[in-house]
Each structure stands twice: as structure tokens, then as C-alpha cells.
Amino acid sequence: MHNHPMDEWQHGHDFHFDDGGHGERSTQRVVLLTVAMMVVEIGAGQAFGSMALLADGWHMGTHAAALGITAFAYRYARQHAADPRYSFGTGKVGVLGGFASAVALAIVALLMAAESVQRLITPLTIRFNEAIAVAVVGLAVNLVSALLLQGRHDHDHAHAAGHRHDHDHNLRAAYLHVLADGLTSVLAIAALSLGKLLGWVWMDAFSGIVGSIVITRWSLQLLRDTSKILLDSDVPSPLVAGVRGAIEADADNRIADLHVWRVSANHAAAVISVVTDHPKAPAHYKELLARFAELAHITVEVNPCRGDKPPLPTGAGAEAALLFPHLSRG
To answer: Which residue range forms the structural domain that includes residue 183?
Structure first.
């Protein structure tokens, strides 16, 4: 069966982050561990009267839901990568998953702070030995979960070292949730130990407040990073300037309109309108941008310049002056 000659002009829009499914499988394993430990800690916290354990258990519960979002995002992006309903593929599904997880992280912090304040006002009797033992088990689960995700997270940063945006916000969200769990476990162990040794029962509730502050900072940073991509405002200025410079350094080209935005955490798209006295095929202008690895999708519109071409305009009205040079001459 021979391909139609026009087939070579077709191209896909598969821009989702693909690490061979390792991130997805690791996340699924972490979800199972987190759910199991959540049940243990909430039950133990109720039985032994520890706010630190309850906070950690609730924390794990919401993290289990957030990690479920992460796993779903991986699966959905993979299954719908070639779906024509998504104009630029499913590259932002993972970013959206990271954003949703960040919101969950912020809610966790708020609930932890509220309950901890309540426990400061109305302290409960705590069975320290049992509570500490459960907290240690919780920390061990957190360490195992972190190890499951660490390899993929390091792989992500190794790529990022050579390419600023080659990373996976979905995996980063999962990793932050595991770190947050580990932090609350450490705080719970420290607070319960001080409460047992020094009689500082209030440390149990205070640890929940400290943990909520740290987790809030993590969630806000992830919200900032993902929202920029979702709102198409995360394209670095050097990339935009580089695109403009590469086009306008060739012949007498002038860019009349330029839009660059992210279609995933790792890929960008560009729509470029060029005005020139010597128009060439769009492939020529795309070749000028071949060194920009981030540009996974480029659309070029070529406009022949009519009449005497004006100098490169600046300031307000620059685009209009380039598109309609006869108007600028009066």
C-alpha cells in the first residue's frame, strides 16, 4: 500500500511528556502505599489522641486523591495523544494535573492549620509511645514512595540541566506530595518525642501549624509554575527574541506578527507573519528556526511587501505599519 503524496505534509500533535510510562507506574505504586498508610494513621490518631498523626493521616488521604489525579493525567494524556479534538495535543494535561494537585496541597495545609489551632486551644490526652511508633512507620512509607519517584525526578532534572523546560509538572506534583508527607511525619515524630520527654503536649499541635506553612509555600510555587503554562505566559523572552532575530537577520524579512506559547511543559508553538520583498516557501523560514529545539510546532504566513518597504517600525502601530506600508506613507 502506497502513501498518498500529500501524506508527507501531515504531522502529529503528540506533545505530552513521555518517559516510557515509568512515571505513571511509579505514581500508581505510590498511590497504593499512601492509601494504606492513610488508613493506619487516621485510625491510630483517633485511637491514641494524636493531632500530629491525624494531620499526617488526613494529609496522606488528600495526597492519595492528588496522586490519583497525577496517575489519571498520565493515562489520559497517553490515551488521547492522537485525538483530533485537541488542537495541540494533550501536552497540557500533565500541567493541569500538577495545578489540581497544587490546589489539593493548599487545601491540606489549610485543614492542618485549622485543626492544629483547635488542638492548641483544646488539647487532648496523647498515648505517645503508640503514636510515635505509627509515625515512624509513616515516615518509612514516605521514604519508599520518594525512592519510587526519585529516579524519574532525577531523570527530569538531568534533562532540565540542558533544556530549561524539559520537565514534567505532573511528576513534580507527585514528588512534592510525597515530600510533604515526609515532612509531616518528621514533624509528628519530633513533636511527639518532645511531648513525651519534656511534657510539651502543645508541640503536637504546633507541629501541624509549622507543617501547614511549609506545605503552603510548596503549593504556591507549583501553582505559579503551572498556571503560567496554562495561561500561555511562560515563554522566556530570549526564545521570543531569538525567533524574531533569526527571521529578521535573513534577507529583508520583517516580522509583522509573532505569537509563541507552550503546548506542554516541554514544547512550544509559534505562529509567525513575515513581510518581505523576496518571499520564499514557509519551509525556508522554518529552517531558520531549526536550532530552537523547544519549537515543536511552527506556522508561517508569508506576505509580499507592496511598494517601498518602510524601515523597521517600533512602538505603537508597528504591526499595522508593517502589514499596510502604503498607509504609513500617507
So the answer is: 12-230
